[in-house]
Amino acid sequence: MGTDDVPLDDKAKRMRDLLSSFYILDPSSSPNAPSKYGTLDVINTTSFNPDQYMNILVQKSSLEGILQRHVEMAAEIKNLDTDLQMLVYENYNKFISATDAIKRMKSNIVGMEANMEQLLGKIMSVQSRSDGVNTNLFEKREHIEKLHRTRNLLRKVQFIYDLPARLGKCIKSEAYADAVKFYTGAMPIFKAYGDSSFQDCKRASERAIALIIKKLQGKLFSDSESIQARAEATMLLKQLDFPVDSLQAKLLEKLEQSLGDLQLKTDEIENVSAESKDHSKQGKASNLIPTTSREASVHEFVEAIRAFRVIFPDSERQLIKLVQDLVIRHFKTTELYVKRQISSANLLGVLRTIWTDVLLMDEVLSEAVLLDFSLEAAQVAVKQYIASTFTYLLEDISDALLKVNVSLKEAAEEHPLQVALEASKKAVLQGSMDILLGFRQLLDDDLWLLVKLRDFIIDWVQEGFQDFFRALDDHFLLLSGRKNSLSQDQGMTEGAHSEKVLAGLVLVLAQLSVFIEQTAIPRITEEITASFSGAGAQGIGNEPAFVPGEITRIFRSAGEKCLHHYINMRTQRVSTLLRKRFTTPNWVKHKEPREVHMFVDLFLQEVSVSLNFSD
Question: Would you say 483 and 474 are in contact if contact means Cβ atoms under 8 Å apart?
């Protein structure tokens, strides 16, 4: 058996343990000191008892184990001898290197003391010569410094004497900033010597500054000057210690007056809407580059706010109210605009224009929190737009239905009821699909305002359809003559009623109710499920905002009621005719009949028309 039979890891571990025990003076102090005899490390301790160790080894090990232990100990002794030899060689090399280094240091230090003494002598020589130069040049240096101070003083005096002329040149060239700079620089001298040596210069300068103040005031309140130029004039007046509190109020009033020019106008909204349509045809709408006069005015207004805030640091509250007022005006104009029948592209163009102004103002006045403020105002405008869109859809359907009366009176078409029914179906289904497409554009747009309002838009659209169909059912009830309410919109029902409602209109309403129940509601539900479902879509009490089952039941009932009402109307008409025919007249006052009334033919004709329309 040799050393190769021992595993490498165990061998390396035992070697490290042996070396560690060799360099520890007190093996018992080691944290890994053995606590029992019978371990390998106990041999290296000072309390090692060979007889006891051999007895334990003989008792616990077999003959093969003792021979194996013998081989291992022989290999370890050999390895220790090799390692000790290597350590001796390495230490010997280090001792030789240290000896050579000491020899070199000794040879280098031999001449260092003489060199240091020579260096000290040279330093003393330089110091003595430097003291001599300072002594010889002291009087001349003092004289030069005195002349330099005199020269600077003469320059200042010359500047004071030339100040009135300088101010006059600045006035002619309208360089008011330079004039203020020169005068404020001379103020310390005027305060010290203005009543004695420089009295004339001070008076002439004050007259020039009074003229400059007057011109700055005129520039400040001139309508031809830009807001930025007036703000600069205010800053110069402030540097001249002119009371600017009243000027601050007047300048703020100028800014408030400029809001009227910055507010969106109807014609500007139309231009923005046209441009947004062009962009939508080309692809995704992009922010418009400020080229119009209004956009330039907005940039000028923003820069004026920046300057105003620097000039008057305590004006933050007034400026916040000012910019918020401009945003409110923008959205009030938008709310008036959406009351008209406009497309979603028109609304997107207006919102992008407002958002551009908001971002510009937020850069210079972030304390106004215009982003959240605009979000609240946009929420009202978008909700009003959605509600207005459903209102116009209801009006379109009502207009299509009211044409039944005109068609029946004129009898221009072969089947006027069928034409009116098809027009009404198209108004309901195609009109609903068109407004859903427009609302989808609002959802797909990446404008920050619309992204934040996405869940609200989903809710508003679903709630809008729910309320729209309920209102449409009420309108059908009103058009059919089964409900007379003074609270209804007279504009939508004008011309629909006379002393008696045409029976054809009631029949069209019945057919249209069936169409809404069987065709329109499933199509609209499918589109809403595909495009308008998500985190929102919750009504009152966490119920779905749009319930197609309820709308289906409403119009199923409406169709049945309109059909029964139509039958009742025809029955009443027949009863009236029969009653008139069978009522005994007063023959004294009654004229003789001049023609025969074909009652049966008339009744069969009406039944035939109804059957053809139902088919």
Answer: yes
